[in-house]
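hey so i finally got around to running the thing on that chain from the lab meeting. sorry it took forever, my laptop kept dying and i had to restart like 3 times. anyway pasting the input first so we r on the same page abt which one it is
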Amino acid sequence: MTSTLPRRCKPSEFRRQIQSRSQNPIKDYTTAIAEKIEDLKTKCLIEGRPFTKELLRTSIQYGFAEHHCTIEDIFSTFLKSQQKKVDAGLSTRKNYRKYEIVRDLFFSHAGIMADANALILRQHHIIDFNTHLLSVYDTTTVAGMMQKLKTVFLHALKNKMIQENPFMGFKICRKEKEVEFLTQEEVDRIRKAKMPTEGLEKIRDLFLFQCYTSLSYCDMMALKPSDYKTNEYGHIYVTGERLKTKVKFVTILFEDAISIAMKYDFCLPTISNQRYNTNLKIIANICRITKPLHTHIGRHTSACYLLNKGLSMEVVARIMGHSTTKITRHYAKLLDKTVFEAVDKIMKYDSDTEIPELSCI
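ok and heres what got predicted. didnt touch it at all, straight out
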């Protein structure tokens, strides 16, 4: 007797076969269900689990399998795999904690219990959860949370803990976060400002070095004197693999960057990321910069500067160590001035060029 459930049958046909004195498929079917219910009650009794209405409904609807994992099991299994990545240094504890937060929010606001059978997961649970998040958080934060939840369920689907992907047909709405960068005037203001302490001066120099080279914080901190090389054109450059992504980068040092490197004998000061970001806020106040100064904004500023100076997107991507230009487009923004100058060149070219008359045929 197959355990595939439920089985469709017209009510009139069901009553007729049940009332019949002879054995028939419907009687065989209901007898099989009754036996499976008794087996399930016995199993719950042995395992010390409550025999609930929800458990019975789920078993009848989705089949009496030997084991039905709960939604809690899905998260637990995934988090165990993430913990192994944290232990191996492939992920961070902070990232692990984000999955725990998503799990707790899902159980609180998706209208679903942690001990519910995983087979009951449907798209409306995802939609309800997404709706709640949007009422509390901004769209960027919600998109990040929903992506993490999707990762959990895809892991469950891959490991056959669920039969259907509840995210199927659901689109995570992503709103691109505006990347901030400093103008040339703001960079000059930071460069010319007098720092009250030697420590702040070092941090100022490191930040300007990022603005001039596009290097990330960790790649800048990893620089050694031997990393500085000279090419056939006489330009000093730095090349290598990014520590974060292992993608190759090559950046040419402009005069301002060379001056900072020479100031420290090509051995830049080593400062913790936390202290670096904290003191950048102090520098922002000193220089009256209203934009949030942090390790990434120097990198953004460099990308924007290079693009607006006429370098192609592919060259900027190589300098920054991006695997694709799609990432670079997110960093680099065209200034209005660049657009105005480009259009002005076209207008001047058109005014200086004699347009030939078109002869009618």
